[in-house]
Amino acid sequence: MSRPMADSHRRFLQTMMSNGIISASQAEALHKHCCETHGAHYVADRLDDFINVINAQLQPLFMYIRKGMSEENGLEYYALVNMTETDITRMASDYADNELELFRKTMDLIVDSESGSASSTDILNSADSLRTKKLKKKETEHVLNKFVQDKWLNEKDGEYTLSVRCVVEMEQYMRTIYPDLIKVCHVCHNIALQCQMCENPACGIKVHLPCAARYFRARSDPHCPSCNDFWPHEIPEMQRFQSQSSQNLPSSSRENTAPTTSRRSRRS
Amino acid sequence: MSQRKKSVSASQNKTQRRSQASLNEDEEASFSQVSSSQVQRARENFTSDQIDRKVAEVVQFILIKDQKKMPIRRADIVKHVIKDYKLLYTDIINRVCRTFEQVFGLKLVETDPKNHIYILINKLDPIQGEPVSMRSVNPKKGLLFVILSVIFMKGGVIKENLVWNSLKKLRVDPGEKHDEFGDVKKVVTDEFVRQKYLEYVKIPHTEPVEYEFRWGLRSEKEVSKLKMLEFVGELFEQDPQSWTQQFREASTVDSSSQRTSS
């Protein structure tokens, strides 16, 4: 028998529904807050147990709170994801058909690239071949901004990458659509897009940057964890990821101001 | 109740209303003619897995409608989700209600028993200073809050001009396109009305036609008048209790709604 939910769990779930995704540090603060608000027993390092109680009830509804790691900063996040695609969930989309097609094209470019990113120029060019309804250049830029605001894409210096929310929610979809292109990280076994790759053509495994930093830490002479060939990449420093984590503490107004247009909708 | 119906029909033209009415009667008839033996047979026709799945689909459907603040109609639920399971509508919707209360802390409330329109109401009180906002921050809520407080402080019903003038004092001109809200008049008289936050009703026997505003059902269920009065008190640096009539109403409403929810 699964344990019943209390108001502390319900408050946690409602917050997940209106935010879509929250960082692990936010989730910990929220866990404490929800337990204290409803006078429930709070155990600091039992967040995953707490979430499992919710997930047991969500499972028959085809929803799930899933943990994922950001490929950029190595931080963990919790996202509320939808496990099935039905006519009903498709209806949930806040985007027009041509906007969805643009998203799929962007995803194609990113998955097909070596860097795990796509330049705004390439995306704008691909928008010329939209079949549903053409988007003007200005409109395309506007839609891309919306994807970033809704936390489906990240953008840095004109390069677009898939956000952690997108990867966590679309994982199954991506594995189905790109069976040959999608590789998983050798260290954490999640989908790897922005990563380093073994240059031995017979091997070619991928490792996320934060995973590489952790794995190769304190190894002066790095070798591929699979084929043992020399690892020819610069090993990112752990510091880079840890320093970013301090910027992401609970207060995070950024998450709150982003318009959360969708709780659990499917985009493709 | 009759007021609300008027506000609904005011927005529809006559032919629409007529076809709507006959549609409702048909639907009503097919719902009331169901005999218990038919239901019993239907229960045997579907496996419990099939029913579970339908319940999940209805939950999803309602969550999506609610998220977009679109009306949740029984007719739509039947047409788009329930389909062949129509005989089991009551079984399914009862389980859906239970799921909303037990899993999500939400309550499905029928706001219009004639046309069978529901809304979802939050059973958990909003808490100040949450580490992560429980509700998505929507600037329109600020606009709504101002209008609701003006209505409440003026005794529950006010002419529309008073609302527009109050907004103008805050430099929100319903005649101009606002940077944040766009077409203010449309947001207030259409969106908020559709979402049941406000009622916008024609005043009878007025020439030229005048309209008045009241609180909508969703506001009555979701907004604490006591908290609103505290807010207004802070604004005017006055004790909330000094507005005796409003204070009395706020305290009775809040304590009675607590009784029903516990």
Automatic annotation (TrEMBL), chain A:
CDD domains reported in the protein's UniProt record: RING-CH-C4HC3_NSE1 (cd16493)
Location within or outside the cell: Chromosome, Telomere; Nucleus
UniProt similarity note: Belongs to the NSE1 family.
Catalytic activities: S-ubiquitinyl-[E2 ubiquitin-conjugating enzyme]-L-cysteine + [acceptor protein]-L-lysine = [E2 ubiquitin-conjugating enzyme]-L-cysteine + N(6)-ubiquitinyl-[acceptor protein]-L-lysine
Species of the source: Phoxinus phoxinus (Eurasian minnow)
GO biological process: double-strand break repair via homologous recombination
Protein name: Non-structural maintenance of chromosomes element 1 homolog
Subunit structure of this chain's protein: Component of the Smc5-Smc6 complex.
Main EC class the enzyme belongs to: transferase
Chief site of localization: nucleus
Ranges for region Disordered: 241-268
EC number(s) from the headed UniProt entry: 2.3.2.27
Keywords: Chromosome, DNA damage, DNA recombination, DNA repair, Metal-binding, Nucleus, Telomere, Transferase, Ubl conjugation pathway, Zinc, Zinc-finger
Biased composition (Low complexity): 242-253
Biological role stated in the UniProt entry: RING-type zinc finger-containing E3 ubiquitin ligase that assembles with melanoma antigen protein (MAGE) to catalyze the direct transfer of ubiquitin from E2 ubiquitin-conjugating enzyme to a specific substrate. Involved in maintenance of genome integrity, DNA damage response and DNA repair.
Pfam families: SMC_Nse1 (PF07574), zf-RING-like (PF08746)
Record-annotated Non-structural maintenance of chromosomes element 1 RING C4HC3-type domain positions: 185-227
Record lineage: Eukaryota, Metazoa, Chordata, Craniata, Vertebrata
Any single Gene Ontology cellular-component annotation: nucleus
Any one Gene Ontology molecular-function term assigned to this protein's record: ubiquitin protein ligase activity
UniProtKB/TrEMBL annotation, chain B:
Name of the protein described by the UniProt record: MAGE domain-containing protein
UniProt-listed Gene3D superfamilies: MAGE homology domain, winged helix WH1 motif, MAGE homology domain, winged helix WH2 motif
Region forming the signal peptide: none
Region of interest called Disordered, as start-end residue ranges on this chain: 1-36
Cross-referenced InterPro entries: MAGE (IPR037445), MAGE_WH1 (IPR041898), MAGE_WH2 (IPR041899), MHD_dom (IPR002190)
Biased composition (Polar residues): 8-23
GO cellular component labels: nucleus
Pfam families named in the record: MAGE
Domain MAGE: 51-250
